[in-house]
Amino acid sequence: MVRGKPVEDVQYTRATKKRSGLAPVSLADYASIFHSSPAVRVGLIRDGVPAAEVKRLQERLDMPQAAFLQSMKLSTATLNRKVGRQENLSPEDSERVIGMAKLIGQVQEMVRQSGEPKGFDPAKWLAGWLQQTVPALGGSRPIDFMDTMEGQGMIADLLARMQSGAYA
Question: What is the pTM for the complete model shown?
Fold first, then answer.
């Protein structure tokens, strides 16, 4: 929810943000990104993720920068340049970053449904899990699939199967 309105009611074009006075969902609000409609996420992607938010996401994941940027197919030099100029990522790059935030939101929701254990950090758990080999992926690591939306969808499905107990 954003200022008492469901995420789906918030428009994300720059012009609408100014007219409505509503703040968009933050990239760090993983649950809202996970629960938002595809149309809302498309709006976020089209507007572009602020480059500085990508650095905050990487820090939140507590993942080595090189591993994170490689998995997202992002160049360190380009990201640093865009941060310095306070620019947004391209829609193509933003899509992968939004997808990673959505996965964190999915893990957060899974834990909430399971009783929300105190002290659990969904971002750090996901970062660790992404870097482990997973039998259901033929011994590959989930992080190796983060560079495409199809791969991210496959990992989201795997997480859902893990929650349901159909992990195979």
Answer: 0.83
d(CA 45, CA 84): 20
All residues at 6 or more sequence positions from 101 whose CB lies less than 8 Å from its CB, including other chains: 27, 28, 30, 33, 57
Domain count, the chain: 1
Q: Which two tokens stand for residue 78?
A: 């380009």
Q: Domain range holding 29?
A: 7-164
**Domain membership flag for residue 29:** yes
The tens digit of pLDDT for each residue in 26-46 reads 788 999 999 999 999 999 999
Kindly state whether residue 150 falls inside one of the protein's structural domains.
yes
- Residue 145 CA to residue 159 CA, distance in Å, equals 13
Model confidence pLDDT, tens digit, residues 76-122? 999 999 999 999 999 999 999 999 999 999 999 999 998 877 889 99
